[in-house]
Structure to design on (430 residues):
């Protein structure tokens, strides 16, 4: 059995794609333009930056922008009745916490579990969703999404809020609620989310691009699993026997996503369970995940294998998808946002030095073409078409090479490769 290769995808590749609240957007390769403006004596210089676009795919079935229903997704969160019930319970809880009533966190946790709602209490912060304020830590690649939690408060400063104790009504409720969820034997995700005290040290991802990580989800020590926890839990633990029983006896949907958007096959791959993955594939598990997922979604089994650099699993899955689907995994070079801002300032200064010459020529647009090596270094640059002022073009290209930092392109296996990239720049005074 192969061991997973190092995790070496740049952070931009791991950002979530835009999604409808409870379903997944399909994100075909496309191009959009981001406009950066530079104004001054010589008119306006516009820099248009080519980026990988992601837009919702027009799917069949009942798809609503706010996640009201997705009939064909196989996602229980998209069931209108379940969604309405969750929304109603969340609104009632939020109202109770906002008034003088004192909801019992243990009772509320049991009510949620009775309904099959395994979401933890969380706070929304300027940096995203956090469960840690309420004593829980989840190991989910890319972090938790809003639909994965019961958001009971907005916290502008999480660090300051950490010191709050029982005297803070909402904080006390959230901590006791999550503790009650964790202590209930029905909670199936104790291998993904745990109390902060039991989570242990956080993994250090600072050098992930070079040294990598082997476990992008959950915890290494999983603990016991019950048959009632379903296919996902069986897949995480590599229990082929449980997988077969749940499929053959209980007829569980092998491609149904859970609250994290992960199918059983995605979990088997995330925990490097080859036999479990094979059992799921024999039962027609989809390498691209749930019905509303595509190969490039972060939670798709194929993408998880790619993130782990598990080349053997990628080769196993490749014949099961189309060449177009496999090719969609390739990543173009991506720029560093701060370096692009720095380039903006540098271009403004460059424009001012050439103001007189630029004022005399018509406005025109030019592609700034780069060749990026497998380490993310710019090895060449040229304008197409060439600038009418050669010296201006040479300086512009030199600034772009010196300033813009790139994450290298990666092939469908996640291996860094040389690739071209471009910026679209416009300048002139007329």
């Amino acid at each position: 059995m192969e061991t997973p290769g190092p995790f070496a995808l740049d952070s931009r590749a791991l950002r979530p794609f835009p999604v409808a609240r409870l379903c997944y957007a399909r994100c075909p390769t496309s191009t959009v333009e981001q406009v950066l403006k530079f104004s001054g004596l010589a008119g306006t210089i516009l820099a248009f930056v080519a980026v990988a676009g992601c837009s919702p795919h027009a799917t069949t079935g009942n798809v609503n922008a706010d996640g009201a229903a997705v009939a064909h997704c196989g996602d229980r969160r998209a069931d209108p009745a379940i969604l309405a019930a969750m929304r109603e319970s969340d609104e009632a809880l939020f109202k109770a916490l906002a008034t003088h009533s004192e909801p019992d966190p243990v009772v509320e946790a049991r009510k949620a579990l009775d309904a099959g709602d395994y979401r933890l209490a969380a706070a929304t912060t300027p940096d995203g969703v956090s469960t840690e304020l309420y004593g829980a830590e989840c190991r989910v690649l890319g972090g938790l999404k809003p639909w994965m939690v019961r958001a009971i408060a907005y916290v502008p400063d999480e660090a300051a809020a950490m010191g709050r104790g029982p005297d803070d009504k909402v904080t006390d409720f959230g901590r006791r609620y999550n503790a009650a969820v964790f202590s209930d034997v029905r909670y199936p995700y104790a291998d993904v989310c745990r109390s902060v005290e039991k989570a242990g040290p956080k993994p250090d991802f600072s050098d992930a691009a070079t040294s990598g990580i082997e476990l992008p989800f959950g915890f290494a020590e999983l603990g016991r699993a019950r048959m009632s926890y379903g296919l996902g839990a069986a897949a995480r633990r590599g229990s082929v026997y449980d997988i077969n029983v749940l499929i053959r006896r209980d007829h569980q949907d092998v491609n149904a996503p859970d609250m994290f958007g992960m199918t059983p096959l995605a979990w088997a791959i995330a925990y490097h369970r080859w036999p479990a993955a094979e059992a799921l594939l024999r039962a027609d598990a989809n390498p691209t995940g749930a019905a509303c997922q595509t190969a490039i979604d972060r939670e798709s089994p194929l993408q998880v294998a790619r993130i782990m650099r598990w080349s053997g699993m990628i080769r196993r899955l490749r014949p099961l998808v189309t060449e177009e689907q496999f090719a969609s995994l390739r990543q173009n070079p991506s720029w560093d946002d701060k370096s692009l801002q720095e380039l903006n300032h540098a271009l403004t200064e460059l424009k001012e030095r050439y103001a007189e010459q630029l004022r005399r020529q018509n406005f025109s647009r030019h592609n700034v073409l780069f060749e990026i090596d497998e380490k993310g270094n710019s090895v060449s640059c040229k304008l197409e078409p060439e600038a009418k002022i050669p010296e201006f073009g040479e300086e512009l290209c030199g600034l772009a090479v010196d300033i813009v930092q790139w994450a290298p392109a990666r092939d469908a296996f996640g291996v860094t490769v040389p690739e071209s990239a471009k910026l679209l720049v416009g300048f002139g005074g007329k």
About this structure: The chain has a mean pLDDT of 80.
